[in-house]
Protein backbone atom coordinates (compact mmCIF):
# COMPACT_ATOMS: atom_id res chain seq x y z
CA UNK A 1 0.00 0.00 0.00
CA UNK A 2 1.40 3.33 -1.04
CA UNK A 3 1.87 6.02 1.66
CA UNK A 4 -0.11 8.41 -0.52
CA UNK A 5 -3.11 6.13 -0.92
CA UNK A 6 -4.78 7.36 2.28
CA UNK A 7 -5.30 10.92 0.99
CA UNK A 8 -8.60 12.32 -0.16
CA UNK A 9 -8.53 12.50 -3.97
CA UNK A 10 -10.86 15.47 -4.27
CA UNK A 11 -8.54 17.79 -2.32
CA UNK A 12 -5.70 18.79 -4.59
CA UNK A 13 -5.04 22.48 -4.29
CA UNK A 14 -1.54 22.47 -2.70
CA UNK A 15 0.97 20.56 -4.76
CA UNK A 16 4.47 19.79 -3.43
CA UNK A 17 3.75 20.53 0.21
CA UNK A 18 4.70 18.65 3.35
CA UNK A 19 2.36 16.96 5.75
CA UNK A 20 3.53 15.48 9.06
CA UNK A 21 2.39 11.88 9.31
CA UNK A 22 1.60 10.68 12.85
CA UNK A 23 4.44 8.83 14.59
CA UNK A 24 7.08 10.29 12.29
CA UNK A 25 9.36 13.21 12.99
CA UNK A 26 10.19 14.31 9.49
CA UNK A 27 8.06 15.85 6.73
CA UNK A 28 6.67 13.65 3.98
CA UNK A 29 5.82 15.20 0.62
CA UNK A 30 2.30 14.77 -0.66
CA UNK A 31 0.47 16.39 -3.48
CA UNK A 32 -3.03 16.51 -2.04
CA UNK A 33 -3.22 18.61 1.08
CA UNK A 34 -6.45 19.44 2.96
CA UNK A 35 -5.64 22.92 4.32
CA UNK A 36 -2.74 25.38 3.99
CA UNK A 37 0.57 24.25 5.41
CA UNK A 38 0.63 27.06 7.96
CA UNK A 39 -2.08 25.32 9.99
CA UNK A 40 -0.07 22.16 10.62
CA UNK A 41 2.94 21.71 12.89
CA UNK A 42 6.19 21.21 11.06
CA UNK A 43 9.10 19.50 12.83
CA UNK A 44 12.12 21.56 13.84
CA UNK A 45 10.28 24.86 14.03
CA UNK A 46 9.33 26.83 17.15
CA UNK A 47 8.71 23.94 19.53
CA UNK A 48 10.29 20.52 20.03
CA UNK A 49 8.48 17.43 18.82
CA UNK A 50 9.29 14.52 21.12
CA UNK A 51 11.21 11.67 19.62
CA UNK A 52 10.28 8.54 21.51
CA UNK A 53 13.10 6.50 20.03
CA UNK A 54 15.95 8.84 21.02
CA UNK A 55 14.82 10.99 23.92
CA UNK A 56 16.73 14.21 24.39
CA UNK A 57 16.55 15.86 27.82
CA UNK A 58 14.31 18.90 27.77
CA UNK A 59 16.26 21.83 29.14
CA UNK A 60 13.26 24.14 28.95
CA UNK A 61 11.77 22.78 32.16
CA UNK A 62 13.61 22.22 35.43
CA UNK A 63 14.48 18.64 36.33
CA UNK A 64 12.58 17.54 39.44
CA UNK A 65 14.49 16.86 42.61
CA UNK A 66 15.83 13.35 42.27
CA UNK A 67 17.68 13.23 45.56
CA UNK A 68 17.18 9.91 47.32
CA UNK A 69 14.61 10.13 50.08
CA UNK A 70 15.28 8.80 53.52
CA UNK A 71 13.56 5.49 54.20
CA UNK A 72 10.55 5.45 56.50
CA UNK A 73 11.36 4.83 60.11
CA UNK A 74 9.64 2.06 62.06
CA UNK A 75 7.33 4.43 63.93
CA UNK A 76 6.26 6.02 60.62
CA UNK A 77 5.49 2.62 59.12
CA UNK A 78 3.53 1.69 62.22
CA UNK A 79 1.56 4.92 61.93
CA UNK A 80 0.66 4.16 58.30
CA UNK A 81 -0.43 0.64 59.30
CA UNK A 82 -2.54 2.07 62.15
CA UNK A 83 -4.36 4.46 59.79
CA UNK A 84 -4.97 1.77 57.16
CA UNK A 85 -6.08 -0.73 59.81
CA UNK A 86 -8.48 1.80 61.35
CA UNK A 87 -9.95 2.64 57.94
CA UNK A 88 -10.50 -1.02 57.07
CA UNK A 89 -11.96 -1.65 60.54
CA UNK A 90 -14.42 1.25 60.04
CA UNK A 91 -15.49 -0.16 56.66
CA UNK A 92 -16.16 -3.61 58.13
CA UNK A 93 -18.02 -2.16 61.12
CA UNK A 94 -20.19 -0.22 58.66
CA UNK A 95 -20.88 -3.45 56.74
CA UNK A 96 -21.78 -5.26 59.98
CA UNK A 97 -24.14 -2.48 61.05
CA UNK A 98 -25.74 -2.57 57.59
CA UNK A 99 -26.37 -6.31 57.98
CA UNK A 100 -27.92 -5.66 61.40
CA UNK A 101 -30.05 -2.84 59.96
CA UNK A 102 -31.19 -5.07 57.10
CA UNK A 103 -32.06 -7.84 59.55
CA UNK A 104 -34.08 -5.55 61.82
CA UNK A 105 -35.89 -3.63 59.08
CA UNK A 106 -36.39 -6.54 56.70
CA UNK A 107 -35.09 -4.34 53.87
CA UNK A 108 -32.77 -6.89 52.26
CA UNK A 109 -30.94 -5.81 49.13
CA UNK A 110 -28.03 -6.97 47.05
CA UNK A 111 -25.80 -4.80 49.24
CA UNK A 112 -26.90 -6.87 52.25
CA UNK A 113 -25.61 -10.04 50.60
CA UNK A 114 -22.41 -8.32 49.47
CA UNK A 115 -21.87 -7.13 53.04
CA UNK A 116 -22.43 -10.62 54.42
CA UNK A 117 -20.01 -12.06 51.86
CA UNK A 118 -17.31 -9.50 52.63
CA UNK A 119 -17.58 -10.01 56.39
CA UNK A 120 -17.50 -13.80 55.99
CA UNK A 121 -14.45 -13.37 53.74
CA UNK A 122 -12.77 -11.27 56.42
CA UNK A 123 -13.59 -14.00 58.94
CA UNK A 124 -11.87 -16.55 56.72
CA UNK A 125 -8.80 -14.32 56.47
CA UNK A 126 -8.74 -14.03 60.28
CA UNK A 127 -8.95 -17.82 60.57
CA UNK A 128 -6.12 -18.19 58.08
CA UNK A 129 -3.90 -15.87 60.14
CA UNK A 130 -4.61 -17.54 63.48
CA UNK A 131 -7.45 -15.21 64.58
CA UNK A 132 -5.22 -12.20 64.01
CA UNK A 133 -5.53 -9.52 61.35
CA UNK A 134 -2.78 -9.57 58.68
CA UNK A 135 -2.14 -5.90 59.44
CA UNK A 136 -1.48 -6.83 63.07
CA UNK A 137 1.08 -9.35 61.86
CA UNK A 138 2.73 -6.61 59.75
CA UNK A 139 2.63 -4.13 62.64
CA UNK A 140 4.41 -6.60 64.96
CA UNK A 141 7.56 -6.03 62.89
CA UNK A 142 7.63 -2.37 63.94
CA UNK A 143 6.52 -2.54 67.56
CA UNK A 144 7.08 -4.75 70.57
CA UNK A 145 4.06 -3.39 72.47
CA UNK A 146 1.75 -5.88 74.13
CA UNK A 147 -1.26 -3.54 74.16
CA UNK A 148 -4.34 -4.62 72.25
CA UNK A 149 -4.57 -1.33 70.37
CA UNK A 150 -0.92 -0.91 69.35
CA UNK A 151 -1.86 -1.33 65.67
CA UNK A 152 -5.21 0.51 65.47
CA UNK A 153 -6.72 3.77 66.64
CA UNK A 154 -9.29 2.28 69.04
CA UNK A 155 -9.69 2.43 72.79
CA UNK A 156 -7.89 -0.45 74.48
CA UNK A 157 -11.10 -2.07 75.80
CA UNK A 158 -12.69 -2.02 72.33
CA UNK A 159 -9.57 -3.37 70.65
CA UNK A 160 -9.44 -6.19 73.20
CA UNK A 161 -13.15 -7.15 72.83
CA UNK A 162 -13.43 -6.25 69.13
CA UNK A 163 -13.93 -9.75 67.73
CA UNK A 164 -16.44 -10.75 70.41
CA UNK A 165 -18.60 -7.62 70.06
CA UNK A 166 -18.74 -7.45 66.28
CA UNK A 167 -18.97 -11.19 65.68
CA UNK A 168 -22.00 -11.29 67.97
CA UNK A 169 -23.60 -8.34 66.16
CA UNK A 170 -22.87 -9.85 62.75
CA UNK A 171 -24.24 -13.30 63.61
CA UNK A 172 -27.41 -11.75 65.07
CA UNK A 173 -27.88 -9.55 61.98
CA UNK A 174 -27.21 -12.42 59.57
CA UNK A 175 -29.72 -14.65 61.39
CA UNK A 176 -32.34 -11.90 61.15
CA UNK A 177 -31.60 -11.50 57.44
CA UNK A 178 -32.00 -15.25 56.91
CA UNK A 179 -35.26 -15.19 58.88
CA UNK A 180 -36.67 -12.38 56.69
CA UNK A 181 -35.44 -14.09 53.54
CA UNK A 182 -36.90 -17.55 54.14
CA UNK A 183 -40.05 -16.81 56.18
Question: What gyration radius follows from the Cα positions, in whole Å?
Answer: 32 Å
Quick one: biggest sheet? 2 strands, antiparallel
Order of helices and strands: EEHHHH
Helix content: 40-55%
Task: Indicate the topology.
Blueprint (H helix, E strand, L loop, with lengths): L16 E3 L8 E3 L43 H32 L4 H19 L5 H7 L15 H27 L1
Antiparallel strand pairs: 1-2
Helix pairs in contact: 1-2, 1-3, 1-4
Can you offer a commentary on this structure?
The chain has two domains: 10-53, no CATH class; 74-182. The protein contains four helices and two strands, in the order E-E-H-H-H-H. The protein has helices at 74-105, 110-128, 134-140, 156-182; strands at 17-19, 28-30. Strand 1 (17-19) and strand 2 form a beta hairpin. The longest helix is centred in the middle third of the chain and has 32 residues, at 74-105. The radius of gyration is 32 Å and the shape is elongated.
Amino acid sequence: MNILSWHLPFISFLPNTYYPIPNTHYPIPITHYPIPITHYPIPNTHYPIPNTQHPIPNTQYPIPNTQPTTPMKDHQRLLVIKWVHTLIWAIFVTLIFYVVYSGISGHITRMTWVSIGLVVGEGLVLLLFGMSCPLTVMARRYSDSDRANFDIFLPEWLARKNKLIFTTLFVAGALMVLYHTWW
